[in-house]
Write a structure and sequence with these properties.
alpha/beta, disordered N terminus, globular, binds 4-O-methyl-beta-D-glucopyranuronic acid, 6-stranded mixed β-sheet, 8-stranded parallel barrel
């Protein structure tokens, strides 16, 4: 007799049965348009926002007639209607409004003073800032949104709406805010063909078929989201720039995008290629010091501003990863930046010149070679040589958006140059929006680092980039967002917290990660305490969890660095010119970047910080392997050896990743259904991919070090049955590269129309979860069936779009059939049917006591 009563099936591919059974009861918050993201404007408890004695306004009075103030008034209208069910009257004429005494008033400082001189405030607002006040005078109850300028008025409206969404009381309102820095931009790495470099959420919202898209509705919605968190600029094309976009006919099209941005105060910017004067201008040279080149840039700037009068400026990636640059003519980055900056200057445009200039043909045999040094080495000597409308855009770390890096020493190396910090919202090295990683805590670590600049203590990175530390006129924040046409903009619905958090930090970098995640959770999911508690715990732990099962102790993400930067690929970092070496051998690991014996990189930091990194005693554990080469037996401050730390964190991280699923499941019915399932699907996937990471890393280090795990876990899988050890019909064993990305280094591929792998169950009778680890290649869709004694109990398709067409750590994934009744002697069979180029590849089966059963036993104990 077979007992399949509890059969629940869930994994990457099919969750159908489970979904049907677990459909949440329809709640009041459904359905929600996912594109609204944190501007969901869900209904709120009006009594919290407008306690008794504080009337809800009836009218929004717009004092000025600028586009931005119109947008502000429309947004207030929308927000009040959705959140408070109050349809505001829109008014522009001061006299008419006098009839109503219960108003929201939107205007600039100048307009407010002209409307009611008594409301003039002594203290001037900083540019783009705002003041929110509630004023009760006579019969009037006024909610004043006063902007320093039109942008400030719009930002003030969004801030007021945020307070309402968070159910804050407006009874006593007195808020003054201003952005931390003038530059708060996103970069989008979109290509004219509609693809997005390192984009994980569909095609471009801007381009397609080598042109600007006809339908730009998503662009306007995006601008709205950006403005709602104070982002005021957006670079719409890849920093690996296509010079063609500067052609007149393209600029005319790009102007359509700028028109969508304009109502939200988002200035359009373009990435430009330094060789444009040659490639599209027909000049013989692009030498920045050649007069004809300067003239070409001047004419081009004039042309751009004719098409886009509020154009923000340009980003330049040059002499980096194959991009043309001034080095070709023996010129410096400053000379290149300045020739463009001088062309933009009369129009008020700026140049963001990327500090990401390095040689990717380094000699790995040279123990003094060090990519991390490049930013400082290339730019430090140019301090003071950049024009005032140039900003050097510096990635937070000296390498490249790894799961953990120290801050770039260049932040402290430029005192007479404007700086911006470049943060990566798109999760290139941090799980590509398939893994949950809330990046704000990571960014905070960088922004709150004290650089110990002599004579400027403290000198936090956030104060340097906002221009405070060195009294610079400009600077700020750039976030590489790479949103796409995906309904959730970034793929993973929870990844939008990173875009939100970037904007909030750019506005106010002293906000805490916890405060930002609370705001975002409230705005996205409402004010329910339980929902917020679960969501915020997930968010705030996620970076740590991801770091635990990927790259430890500052060594780098340990991903395939010469490929797609996604799954594990440990040795890919070594023995090539890219300089992301981890320098792991049989006795130890880590880059020696010390002044005393290493590459000298640490000497690029101011002495106070260098002293901390230079000695093993003072160096923080989480940056140890970035700064030092140590034996595996080296003891961390915690007392644990490096190798045991690697083992322990990887087991802990994978376990914690799996626990995220159960945490999220408590929200069924409490968040919108679609979002619930989109997140659940990804968390399930992550729970199956984290063990791929864990096993790859622990096995690799076990083999390299020869040191056993003191808990005996590494290489010991009592519940695992390797495909190659099963009875195979049609399947043939294959070696997987790199070996650590398949269990036992091997998998099985099917070379005919259908194949099977079977085994006899030899453990005690009971309820089990059966996990099938397989490879889901980009091309092709295989189908799998799990059979017990010839009866199918589950079937699924390998139809995910993982980023590789090979068997490796990118494509290894898992499908779990939960709650299967198994008796000793049962025959378990997996049938694989290849589809397209995908040969139904299998890695192993893992059969564990059913989760529900083990949970019950745990309770009994
Ligand atoms: O990390 C690397 C990315 C490239 C990117 C480059 C950069 C746009 O892998 O895809 O190119 O950084 O930041 O310029």
């Amino acid at each position: 007799m077979r007992r399949f009563a509890l059969m629940l099936s869930c994994g990457v591919a099919v969750c159908a049965w489970k979904q049907a059974s677990a459909l949440p009861a329809p709640g009041p918050r459904q359905p929600v348009n996912p594109q609204a993201a944190w501007l969901a404007y869900s209904p709120v408890d009006a009594r919290q926002v407008f306690p008794s004695g504080t009337p809800i306004p009836n009218t929004v009075l717009r004092l000025g007639d600028s586009t931005l103030e119109s947008t502000a008034a429309d947004e207030l209208h929308r927000g009040f209607e959705d959140m408070l069910h109050r349809v505001l009257r829109l008014d522009t004429g001061a006299t008419q409004a006098e009839r109503d005494h219960n108003l929201i008033v939107v205007g600039t400082t100048r307009e407010v003073a002209a409307w009611r001189p008594s409301l003039r405030e002594g203290k001037q607002l900083a540019p783009e800032g705002f003041r929110l006040r509630r004023i009760v005078s006579g019969r009037d109850s006024l909610l004043m949104i006063e902007g320093a300028d039109e942008r400030g008025a719009l930002y003030g409206a969004f801030a007021l709406l945020r307070m309402i969404a968070e159910e804050q009381s407006l009874a006593h309102l007195e808020v003054v805010e201003a952005p931390s820095a003038p530059v708060r931009w996103t970069n989008e790495w979109d290509n004219p063909d509609g693809s997005i470099e390192r984009g994980y959420a569909g095609r471009s919202i801007f381009f397609g078929n080598d042109d600007v898209r006809q339908d730009l509705a998503r662009v306007r919605e995006y601008a709205r989201l950006l403005a709602s968190v104070g982002i005021n600029g957006c670079t719409i094309n890849n920093v690996n720039a296509d010079p063609d976009l500067l052609r007149p006919e393209k600029l005319r099209e790009i102007a359509r995008i700028a028109a969508e941005f304009r109502p939200y105060g988002v200035r359009l910017s373009l990435s430009i290629a330094m060789n444009s004067p040659q490639v599209i201008g027909g000049l013989k040279t692009f030498d920045p010091l050649a007069p004809e080149v300067a003239a070409w840039w001047r004419a081009k700037a004039d042309e751009i501003y004719r098409a886009i009068p509020d154009f923000g400026g340009v980003i330049i990636k040059a002499d980096s990863e194959g991009q043309p640059g001034p080095s070709q003519y023996g010129r410096t980055p400053a000379e290149a930046a300045n020739v463009v900056a001088r062309a933009l200057k009369p129009h008020g445009g700026i140049v963001l010149y990327r500090g990401f200039v390095y040689n990717h043909h380094l000699d790995w045999r040279d123990s003094k070679a060090d990519r991390a040094r490049a930013g400082y080495d290339n730019f430090h000597s140019l301090d003071g040589k950049f024009d005032d409308n140039v900003i050097v855009q510096i990635k937070n770390g000296p390498i490249d958006f790894q799961v953990r890096e120290p801050v770039s020493p260049l932040f402290a190396g430029l005192h007479k140059t404007n700086e911006a910090i470049e943060l990566q919202i798109t999760q290139e090295y941090t799980g590509q929006q398939r893994h949950l990683v809330f990046l704000v805590p990571m960014w905070k670590t960088a922004l709150d680092t004290d650089m110990h600049v002599p004579g400027a203590r403290p000198s936090l990175v956030r104060d340097i980039v906002t221009g405070r530390t060195f009294a610079r006129p400009s600077g700020g924040f750039v976030g590489v967002a790479n949103v796409g046409l995906d309904d959730y903009w970034l793929g993973h619905p929870l990844a939008m917290a990173n875009l939100y958090g970037f904007g909030r930090l750019a506005w106010s970098p002293s906000l805490s990660a916890a405060a930002i995640s609370d705001e975002w959770a409230r705005l996205t999911f409402g004010n329910d305490t339980e929902v917020r508690r679960v969501v915020e715990a997930l968010m705030l732990n996620s970076w740590h969890i991801y770091e635990e099962y990927t790259g430890p102790l500052g060594v780098g993400t340990l991903t395939d660095i010469i490929g797609v930067h996604y799954g594990p690929g440990i040795e890919s970092a070594e023995r090539n010119g890219w300089g992301q070496w981890i320098r792991a051998d049989h006795s130890g690991i880590g880059m020696d970047r010390t002044i005393a014996t290493g590459t000298g990189y640490i000497g690029q930091y101011p002495p106070g910080l260098a002293a901390e990194y230079e000695t093993l005693k003072a160096c923080p554990d989480d940056l140890l392997l970035f700064m030092h080469h140590v034996p595996y037996t080296y003891r961390l401050h915690s007392g644990k050896t490096v190798i045991q730390y690697i083992y322990d964190t990887h087991y802990a991280g994978a376990t914690a990743a799996a626990a995220q699923v159960a945490a999220w499941e408590t929200l069924a019915g409490k968040v919108p259904d679609r979002t619930y399932f989109e997140v659940l699907r990804r968390l399930n996937y992550q729970a199956g991919h984290a063990p791929v990471w864990r096993d790859a890393v622990v096995n690799w280090f076990h083999q390299m070090s020869g040191i056993a795990d003191d808990q005996g876990r590494v290489g010991n899988h009592p519940n695992r049955i390797e495909a190659e050890a099963m009875h195979l019909a049609g399947y043939a064993p294959v070696a997987v590269t790199p070996w650590e990305t398949a269990s036992g280094g091997k998998a099985a591929m099917c070379g005919q129309a259908a194949c099977s792998a079977s085994t006899v169950f030899t453990r005690p009778d009971g309820w089990y979860d059966v996990a099938v680890q397989y490879f889901d290649l980009l091309d092709g869709v295989s189908h799998f069936t799990l059979e017990i004694n010839g009866s199918p109990v589950d079937t699924w398709a390998a139809d995910d779009t993982l980023p590789s067409d090979k068997l490796n750590g990118h494509t290894s994934t898992r499908h779990t059939t939960a709650g299967v009744a198994l008796d000793r002697g049962d025959r378990i069979r997996i049938v694989g049917v290849p589809g397209g180029k995908e040969p139904a590849p299998l890695d192993y089966l893992e059969i564990t006591r059913a989760f529900a059963v083990t949970a019950r036993e745990a309770v009994k104990k």
